[in-house]
Amino acid sequence: MNERHRIFGLELSPYSVKVRSYFRYKAIRHQWIVRSGEVQSEFAKYAKLPLVPLVVSPSGEAIQDSTPIIEAYEATFPEPSIHPREPLARFVSVLLEEFGDEWGNKWMFHYRWAREVDQLSAAGRIARASAPRVTEEQHAALTASIRERMIGRVWFVGSSPETAPQIEDSFHETVDLLDAHLATRPYLFGARPAFADFGLWGQIYNAWTDPTPGAWLEGRAGNVLAWVQRMLFPRAEGDFEPWADLASTLTPLLERQVGRLFLPWSVANAAAIDSGAEEFTVELAGKKWTQKPQKYHAKSLAALRARYGAAKEAALDALLAKTGCLAALRG
């Protein structure tokens, strides 16, 4: 029996590298398997959906979706924990992990497929990973096919000519806020990575590999870049900080990005799914945002609300009210 866990993934998948980073942090013996045509039959044996990451345990148990993967393995490999002991900090980490997965993916996906230089870079790398042994002519044809297909899917994250400035402004502001926060600590919640680090990092790391956002990060955000590199092989360098020490630089992120953009979008998206609407429009920070609803996120919003219900306390409610997050989480 193979004693290693197997991670089927792609370097250009933020959710795949998120799981790989977690496994590295926990020192869980694993094999990183690039999903390609060469391993498709093995992938298909275990996958319920044609999506990465897929993790297969030594006993043959399979699980997909990065957040459930990490939650399942955290129960088996609890140390070093990725959850701060302080309840308020713990929930903020959970909230930021969700923000990274669902809102941060808009930054990454938009930048990757909005401009020709990024489209060509990403499509070529995906083609090479998916079919590493083809001829140059076949590689060019596959690159063109991937590019055409993915450009046609930007609507999925809400990217459009109208929302592009909002997405890019959100990325820029988030990175600026993170850069200030990371100036005095190696990870988001102190001297070891938290749940939030893995969710946000996967998106920003992938954006860094693309020409346009990568150049912007290289020229502006030295502390974020150091964190991006650190999270490739994260390790505990100490303990989590108390929320009192984190609040001054993380609260603006909660207020300006989570409370003003992500959670209002989440609530409008869930309402659109409940009503069966094919499209919805919501005002985010004074600007209109229109897109087709994302079905999966309605489920993750429900899970986030359940976590809030289990965690709520006076100090947490006060912070969430201050940052405009409370009403959305109460549902």
Mind explaining what this structure looks like?
The protein is of the alpha+beta class and 331 residues long. The chain has two domains: 5-76, Glutaredoxin; 87-111 and 157-330, no CATH class. The protein is built from 14 helices and six strands. It has helices at residues 14-26, 40-46, 66-76, 87-114, 116-130, 136-151, 164-181, 195-208, 211-220, 222-230, 243-275, 295-311, 314-322, 326-330; strands at 5-9, 30-34, 54-56, 62-64, 280-284, 287-291. The protein has a four-stranded mixed beta sheet, covered by helices on one side. Helix 4 packs across helix 11 (243-275) and helix 5 packs across helix 6. The model has no long low-confidence stretch (mean pLDDT 97).
- Provide the gyration radius in Å: 20 Å
Low-confidence stretches: none
Distance between the termini: 47 Å
Helix proportion range: 55-70%
Q: Top keywords for this entry?
A:
331 residues; alpha+beta; Glutaredoxin; 2 domains; four-stranded mixed beta sheet; 14 helices; 6 strands; 62% helix; globular
Q: How do the helices and strands line up, and which of them pair or pack?
A:
Elements: E1 5-9, H1 14-26, E2 30-34, H2 40-46, E3 54-56, E4 62-64, H3 66-76, H4 87-114, H5 116-130, H6 136-151, H7 164-181, H8 195-208, H9 211-220, H10 222-230, H11 243-275, E5 280-284, E6 287-291, H12 295-311, H13 314-322, H14 326-330
Parallel strand pairs: 1-2
Antiparallel strand pairs: 1-3, 3-4, 5-6
Helix pairs in contact: 1-3, 1-8, 4-5, 4-7, 4-8, 4-11, 4-12, 5-6, 7-11, 8-10, 11-12
